[in-house]
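Q: Structure for this?
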Amino acid sequence: MQTTFLQDDFGAILTAEPGDKATDISPETLQSLLTKHGTILFQGFNTTTEEFDVITDKLGTDYMNYKGGGYVRKTTGEEDGKTMLSTSTTLEKGKIKPMTMPLPLHAEMFYTDKRPLLLWFYCVTPAEKDGQTTIGDGVAIYKRLSQKWKDLLAEKRLMYLRSYPDGIWQNIYQTDDIEVARGFCHDSGMTTEVDADNTLHTTYLTTAIPKTRWGGHTAYINSAMTVVMQEGTDREKLSSIRLEDGERLPREMIKEIVDIQSDLIIELEWQSGDFVLLDNSRTMHGRRGFEDTRRNVLLRMVRDVAF
Ligand SMILES: [Fe+2]
């Protein structure tokens, strides 16, 4: 097995040599590479989903589902605690379709306290063309940010706003009881309001620049850009973002962040049986758009680990 790196101190790549099995990699090696480099890419091991189960268990088995997430994802393996999530889907003319649009760099579920610490992406089938998963180091992004935006984001938190009409919140929160849905939101650190037409409004406040789990570095890591990109579309009615004083995020700051991210972004070229582990407190991820709907990249989320 060969170990190389994506950037200076970010992102380890483990490349299989003939006869290597990913299941032979020790938990200590995984832990050390993850905590130092924020990402581990496993290439060429031709890993099966059964082997993938064995490997992900090495770091912790507190797997999460996508309840309260912003999209609809199919779940498999939940019964035996091996929750795997499909790529996000959308309903189009009554049919479930995979979402194929590009996604900017974001952290997973930073619009709720119930967020995963680790993300495992596993490639069943890559897209014929494009569809790369992208990643970026939140610590490096923060370092490059102008002092005035560092100061602004230190002073004001982000405010994630959701408005789910009757019929939608039931899907998102997987219940028909609005009080159960509200209870879930309150347990996730949100405040809620319900309209006369049974629309559920939620508000969640959190910093855009938290500390990483390992090393305690300040990182620009949040879910802002996926919400910003919806501005001006139909989805804006469902989901929007402001600073905590209600102001929009300054356009100039967004532009700077987009520029820094496009400079630091790394594309992961998928092959069947490859997988990647991300520290969701440091590594942001996204996706290049694609057309080939056979693309199948699964996600397993770990809520927390013991180290
Ligand atoms: Fe994501």
